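Suppose you are handed only these lines of text.
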Amino acid sequence: MSLRTIWWDDENRAIGMIDQTLLPERLENIEVGSVEQLCEAILALRVRGAPALGAAGAYGVALAAARSEATDPVALLDEVQKAAGIIRAARPTAVNLSWGVDRVMQALNKIRESADSDEIRAAALAEAESIAEEDLAINRVLGDVGASLLEDGDVVLTHCNAGRLACVGWGTALGVIRSAVAEGKNTSVYSCETRPLHQGSRLTAWELSEDNIPVTLICDNMAGMVMRQGLVDKVIVGADRITKDAVFNKIGTYSHAVLAKAHGIPFYVAAPISTFDLSHKEKDVEIEERDADEIRRLGNKQLAPPEVKVYNPAFDATPLDLVTAIITERGIYRPLEMPDLE
Ligand code: MRU
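From them, the structure of the protein bound to MRU can be written out as follows.
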């Protein structure tokens, strides 16, 4: 099944995307026609997952340029620069968001002395489209690279959603599983539900079921038990940012890494090079904290006293010594053996 998560709608000069908050009940697309709307969509997790956020950031800059009424190129670039700052700040942890925004801004800076406003608009869109196309191609390669680590019959535990919904398509952690299945390897998955926003149950379980890849849903606190029972061969997760010393990913990832180590199970991270941020260390990275009601409530249902104090970090950091290997489009890296990013 071919499914793109985010795209440019030329006719309406808007960003098209799947509204992931509606899954698994409804598969519906929305149209995003302003930077304000895009930031709302990012914050509400209508579009989410590091590589998809990279594409969203890039398309956001193209959208700001397309919708600007400025005819003077300097005024246009000024407006686009302001929009870029707003988009970059929408969510702090996944480095791909600012990476996508910055890549389009760099393309515009190269032509700023010579281009007219229509050329600036066209260049912004062309760079955003390249980022989206590259994401699809990169994930295919990354998936094939990672599939070499899986044996026929392997059972893989994953957390959150690092699938096609988290990217423009195919997926990173789930891309590895898709590639293994495409090679004819019998592969099945334990998907952790991923409290509090349930990306594992709403999205991962949905996309694997759509592709007929066997998936068993568990609550996050069951991971230790299934590992102890010998039901898991490998853990594969995605990443939002990889610094010199740690992998940032959805809250709960660190616990799975500790459990995997305790049970002698390989713990793999699958991520494109755009997720690497080797100029920083764990201590430099802001972990997004989200609304308390994501934990206190479930839709209309109150799950906890309305005023109870809550701590709701959206991500955690896993030190590299707990990571068996990082799977990228450029190959497989053992911990502390980071790729040359030039
Ligand atoms: O808050 P989310 O849903 O954007 O978090 C997503 C994750 O943590 C994913 O595991 C990560 O972005 C990798 S996506 C290939």
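What can we learn from it? The chain has a mean pLDDT of 96. The chain has ten helices and 15 strands.
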